[in-house]
């Protein structure tokens, strides 16, 4: 096989299986799933992405983006992918989602420990409160639908989860919604263990994905990602990664 034929073969292989020279993947700080230390990235989701992309023989680099900016960059094709993100009907119109999710998480409400506000499992109990949320974040179909239907109207938007917790601490908001494990991590980082608590039952268990830009030919890439995750699930790698971080979270609670 001469050099020209080899190059043509490799290009065809790349197109068929969705492999690119290097993918630029956006992420946001989302401990314990995504932890950032300067230019070092770790956490459950990062480890899953690293392992799956290694099995795909796919190079990638990470770039730190707020989720609202990442969604715009994805839709414009400025970056190739982003994680972690919820799959919603609106997002599926403009982004390519694999079938396999990265992890599941429980969403709960957090309040100040001395607050007389309580979430009792019904949105009626908090509909008049100022609720902290992060720009462009989906909190699952139940909460998102309540916002869309204006059952919950008094929302206070922040650029990141840390800002929302700081607003809660200074009582600029009454209550905030966040992933349970993520919230616990931020509470520890901000030293709020004796000031902020979870209020009420789980709102919803949701699933988080990696999404790829619809501006590029990434359907085959999504298929390759699904195959890698399926193999990781079959050989126990996925369970091992998930249990490692769940155990760390349990030990630190």
Descriptors:
253 residues, D-Maltodextrin-Binding Protein, domain 2, 2 domains, two-stranded antiparallel ribbon, 9 helices, 11 strands, 26% strand, globular, disordered C terminus
What would you say this structure looks like, in words?
The chain has 2 domains: 147 residues, D-Maltodextrin-Binding Protein, domain 2; 102 residues, Periplasmic binding protein-like II (D-Maltodextrin-Binding Protein, domain 2), CATH 3.40.190. The protein is 40% helix and 26% strand. The strands form 2 sheets. Strands 1, 4, 5, 6, 7, 8, 9, 10 and 11 form a 9-stranded mixed β-sheet that branches. A two-stranded antiparallel sheet has the order 2-3. α2 packs across α8. The termini are far apart. The N terminus and C terminus are likely disordered.
Question: Could you write a compact summary of the structure shown?
Answer:
This protein is α/β, with parallel strands linked by helices and 253 residues long. The protein is built from nine helices and eleven strands. A hairpin with a 2-residue loop joins strand 2 (35-37) and strand 3.
